[in-house]
Amino acid sequence: MASYTIVLLSLFISCFSILLLSLTLSSVLLVSITTAGSFHQHININWGEERAQILESGQLVTLTLDQYSGSGFQSKDEYLFGRIDVQLKLVPGDSAGTVTAFYLSSQGPAHDEIDFEFLGNVSGEPYIVHTNMYTEGHAGREEQFYLWFDPRQDFHTYSIIWNPGRVIWLVDDIPIREYTNRESKGVPYPSRRPMRLYSSIWNADSWATQNGKIKTDWTKAPFTASYRNLKIDACVWESTSSCESEESTNSPPSKPWMMQQLDDGGKMNLQWVRKKYMVYDYCVDYKKFVYGIPLECKL
């Protein structure tokens, strides 16, 4: 009887230890989530006061710029790898001098950042989609594009896929840019710092429209951009531990974006966009890089 009791006690202790270990691991690992629906659940208005509004029971966000202030929101969580999609309708009419941004960013002077920025223009002239990448606090990786539609007339989907192998910028699921992880060859890549999602609208007429030649016409204010259908499929950062990619396991990834890369159709679409709509590519800006273009441009 005593030995039977000892066996039962040992089993209880073992089960309890496994439970404690499981709870401990859950506090330090990244939790993969998929969220869609109400903006109330996933963002906070972080500046601009009443200029930023969550409307229609959380299904719509508007950000407004006037001569006194812009506005913006940020996600409640931080992420280390994921796919972010949002539908955005840009400022209509004369939007010169304005910038509407949708981006991921970490904190601190050596921060990482992945940018979508939309540079407004005078009526009749197209928006420019400005993309950029910061790694360890350094930017200078700008690429700019026109769009094949008027982004002021209706909502369109803008997406960022960020995984251990690459960053892909997409417009209506068409890739416009890809940045590949080449850390093994000495090129920095945003793979270690968790980032929060941000969006904002502000006045940048010192550079945004035709290199600052066209200033904001405040008689056209307020300027308003609208957001809907935010979808976040990402790893939520819950501790200071490093991110463990699903690439390090032998099991199939639970999130397709974690291993996603461009297939043949995606590569063709990318080349189509870059051939027909690209405005600026930092890799061929020899005036800016007088001592030689960045290493990733040579690989």
From TrEMBL:
The keyword DNA damage is assigned to this record: no
Alphabetized GO MF terms: hydrolase activity, hydrolyzing O-glycosyl compounds; xyloglucan:xyloglucosyl transferase activity
Predominant localisation class: secreted
EC number: 2.4.1.207
SUPFAM superfamilies per UniProt: Concanavalin A-like lectins/glucanases
Protein's cellular compartments: Secreted, Cell wall; Secreted, Extracellular space, Apoplast
Active site annotation, chain numbering: 113 (nucleophile), 117 (proton donor)
InterPro entries: Beta-glucanase-like, Beta-glucanase/XTH, Beta_glucanase, ConA-like_dom_sf, GH16_AS, XET_C, XTH
Keywords from the UniProt entry: Apoplast, Cell wall, Cell wall biogenesis/degradation, Disulfide bond, Glycoprotein, Glycosidase, Hydrolase, Secreted, Transferase
Record-level GO cellular component terms: apoplast
Glycosylation-annotated residues: 121
Post-translational modification: Contains at least one intrachain disulfide bond essential for its enzymatic activity.
GO biological process, one term: cell wall organization
PROSITE patterns given in the database record: GH16_1 (PS01034), GH16_2 (PS51762)
GH16 domain span: 33-227
Organism superkingdom: Eukaryota
Family to which this protein belongs: Belongs to the glycosyl hydrolase 16 family. XTH group 1 subfamily.
Function: Catalyzes xyloglucan endohydrolysis (XEH) and/or endotransglycosylation (XET). Cleaves and religates xyloglucan polymers, an essential constituent of the primary cell wall, and thereby participates in cell wall construction of growing tissues.
Name of the protein this chain belongs to: Xyloglucan endotransglucosylase/hydrolase
Organism: Coffea canephora
